[in-house]
Input
Amino acid sequence: MGTQKTYKATVPSNIAFLKYWGKKDQEFNWPFNDSLSMSLKDLVTITTATLSESSDFEFCFSGVIRSRSDQTAKKAFSHLDYLAKRFDLKKKLRIVSENSFPTACGIASSASGMGALTIAALAAWHGAASFKELEENGFDLETLIELARVGSGSACRSLMGGFVVWEAGSTANDQRVSQLYDERHWPLKDVVVILSQQPKPVASSKGHLGVATSPLFKPRLAGIPERKALMKEALKAKDISKLGLLIEQEALEMHSVMMTQDPPCDYFIPATSQFLGFIRYLRQNQGINSYFTLDAGPNVHLICEADSLDKLYKELERLDIVKDIISSSIGGGPKISCF
Ligand code: PMV
Output
């Protein structure tokens, strides 16, 4: 087995400007609404896969070998089982996966994680050292996107770089992921501000299921097409204040839906509200043009242009509610290599 090749996938995380919250179909991760995101170059998952003679998959994450019952590994094992069953692949794999960012920091890692697992596993099963070779084996980008999406909805947006749109379509099979602009269009930054390193109270996979119980969900859906069109205009014009206000409204609206679900999904901690107020204060009083968005957690992503970074960092570093800061540039799509 010493000569067995190892296949490596490097996949960026993504931050949604227009959010995916709620699915019409669980099995296919078919969302209620379209979403739009930016790929994050410096927040990646690196996953390697090697064919093995073992009787089961082996999964090592963050330097620790995980069993099937390990909470952090359940999704990975079930995705490997799904791929093996769907494509009738008998061989087991040895998987080693790492995030480039601290795992306990509360940044959603399922997007980059499921994307990297899908690509690395299929590359190893088919001996494919490039996307071209994966395509020759029946796995073109569209198929990879669909498979990553089954692992975790937001993972489908991590299979392209730059600004990416995921359209819900009129049926589960009609979904489409496309690149709006590549990473050269507008070199935006994402400064991730960690306010809590605690695990989230409700997994997003559970939270999605309660969306229709919120009285705010229907009005939210009705407003999505207009917000999406306005975001596309702001991205085209590279207008940070226009985009920024839209992403803040969107994040607050998604969290309002979350908080009014039954049972509620309240991801805010007191420091979150305090911090959002501080960001608005910095904009109004110091002219620091950064805009917040949040995923399913208490930590905050600040979207800004490069010329705001120095001033922003200086302000953030003196806040004692800030536990850590991790920043990323906009990035390109996934990569495969083999050794
Ligand atoms: O892919 P999931 O099931 O982890 O859902 C992620 C949903 C949000 O991060 C809250 C929003 C989004 O569009 O990424």
In short: The two ends are 14 Å apart (CA to CA). Residues 16, 19-21, 35, 108, 110, 152-154, 204-205, 208, 295-296 surround PMV (CB under 6 Å).
